[in-house]
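We were asked to recover a plausible sequence for a given structure. The inputs and outputs are reproduced exactly as logged, with field labels preserved.

PROBLEM: sequence recovery
POSITIONS: 220
GIVEN STRUCTURE:
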């Protein structure tokens, strides 16, 4: 099945470069481009792409607000944020807004294509090293745990809380299943229940939530 991608960036060279790289992949099709967040929201509604490659710093409507509007209008929308450096507070805000992950703009063609495929498959692009450093860096700036967090955590079972912590540490379902010595299907059930109980859309938001709720050692 061909993955349909919308590229959003205010720099023409970036859009054209990504379009050429992705267009060379047999399973990926670039269906459109947008030069700002407002145009991106309109293009997503019109084209219904499988994945949106979203720049953050853009005129009219930035990538954070555009991501928020897109996922609010379509819970299944998948946004992959583009950034020039990994420890970017705006990327952190975009993850909180509903982005499924992020990629550096200097990613190789293979990394770019693989990232698109991962997000399109319904998984969050949650690299244990980079994303954990990003979340840790900016979750520490919160004076207190995320306000609704403590009450929501109380709704989780002990095992669900344990799974949430492992998600935040960047483990996949298979790795969590191996760690807890249970079936992968059991972990998938736990993850689904965690997302429903906490009102989150994917594993990336779950990781952000866990750090902000201080379930994971911030800075560790």
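RECOVERED SEQUENCE:
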């Amino acid at each position: 099945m061909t993955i349909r991608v919308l590229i959003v960036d205010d720099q023409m060279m970036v859009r054209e470069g990504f379009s050429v790289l992705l267009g060379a992949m047999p399973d990926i099709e670039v269906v459109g481009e947008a030069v700002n967040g407002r145009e991106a929201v309109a293009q997503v509604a019109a084209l219904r792409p499988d994945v949106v490659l979203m720049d953050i710093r853009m005129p009219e409507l930035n990538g954070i607000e555009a991501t928020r509007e897109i996922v609010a209008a379509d819970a299944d929308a998948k946004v992959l944020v583009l950034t020039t450096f990994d420890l970017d507070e705006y990327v952190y805000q975009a993850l909180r807004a509903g982005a499924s992950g992020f990629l550096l703009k200097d990613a190789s063609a293979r990394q770019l294509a693989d990232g698109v495929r991962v997000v399109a498959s319904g998984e969050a692009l949650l690299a244990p090293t980079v994303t954990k450093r990003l979340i840790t860096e900016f979750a520490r700036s919160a004076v207190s745990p995320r306000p609704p967090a403590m009450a929501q955590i109380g709704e989780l079972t002990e095992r669900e809380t344990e799974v949430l912590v492992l998600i935040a540490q960047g483990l996949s379902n298979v790795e969590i299943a191996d760690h807890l010595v249970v079936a992968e299907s059991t972990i998938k059930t736990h993850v689904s229940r965690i997302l429903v109980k906490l009102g989150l859309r994917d594993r990336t938001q779950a990781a952000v939530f866990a750090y902000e709720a201080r379930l994971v050692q911030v800075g560790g």
